[in-house]
Amino acid sequence: DLEVIGKYPQIDNVKCNCDPIYDELFIDNIGYSKVDFTPKTPLGILNEKSKTTDLLSSPSVGYTNKLLISYKLKEAIINLENDNFQVFKTKIELNTNKQIDYWILNPIKFNYLNIDFDKSDIYLMSSLFDKVEKLDIKSFSNFSFEKERIQNLGYPYRLFIEKVSFDISKNNDFLIIDNVNGGIGYYVSEKLKNKIQEMKLTGIQFDKV
Question: Which of 80, 137, 163, 185 could form a disulfide with 173 if both were Cys (CB 3.0 to 4.6 A apart)?
Answer without folding.
Answer: 80
